[in-house]
Please model this.
Amino acid sequence: MLRTERAVSPSTGTVTMVLVDDRTYEIHPEARDFSLHLQARGRSPHTRRNYLPRVGRYLNWCSTRGTDWRTAALGDLAWYKLSLEQTPVRDTQQLPTGKTVNAHLSTVCEFLRFCAAQGYIPQEVAERLVEPRLLHHAPRGYQRGEHGEHSTIRARILKAPEIEEAPATLTAEQSQHIVAAARTARDRLLLCVLLASGLRIGEALGLRREDMHLLPNATHLGCTHRGAHLHVRPRQDNINGARTKSGRSRVVPLGAECVHRYRDHRAERDTVPGAASSDYVFVNLTGPHVARPMTYSNAKQIIERIGNRCGFRARPHMMRHTAATRWIRSGVDPDVVQTLLGHVSSASTAVYLHATDEDLRTAVELAAAGSGR
Model:
């Protein structure tokens, strides 16, 4: 059976996720090349940590059934999909959602397409996973080409039904409560930035002090953007593994509260030996890794603990959902929200356009009031 391990290069210190045999510790060569491929494409460490266990689960399933994964038929993939749907999630012991199943299937399909492109498996193994479908309504920016009015796309054949739900968010009261409940100026700044700017946690942890332009005018820094703002910049050399997802730079305005929180944070960290000279905005204030930049797992645990003290569930990505939902509910144009969030596709922003129960009731009551005139 295969299991996921971290391989560290002795020369560069680069970490690569690999699959190894749990008896011989032999590295699975195709999975290793796939991991390196993801790394070369700039996929985030978080993505690579998720992808390799999914590939390993599929390969182990094939091995248990006596199926050669290199020549697996569409029927085999259908059986694997059924296995995913009927196997409870380890942590919750509940059946996985359609979204979770599709994430596994997408990873397996991407792995098989990579293997086909490299000549590791027959091309038809990857080809049978997708089929052409007519694209009736093209998204903005889609180029139809020169072949008439209609276009086709290559869509994955195997897909589990998903129940679309609005992302979990914090209320305005909870947002204020969680910031106030943080015990350090650093944590209050982190929560404030996430809630106000909608940054991904990896983007926040990758911020450098040079990215924070908090004066009304930053022309002396060579920046033409007015007002307080921060720059999200893709970097490959963050020693805490923090990465931007899209690989594109963007500017996000900040309000007065974030400016004040940053001032308090600077005063706090200046009292910590070594922290004052760090270029990273968010660093450890105590412990064996003091003055080193915070990691994702560290920030996640801190936010979860603060939420527990407040009496509700809190996760880093909930802050991003909260910011996006607040913008949409306040009437901000979806195109602007897409830019603020750094979404490449408008489909990613559309998840925040869900109507709430209050919206539905208001619509019915307005219609009833109008018909009674």
In short: The two ends are 71 Å apart (CA to CA). The chain has a mean pLDDT of 87.
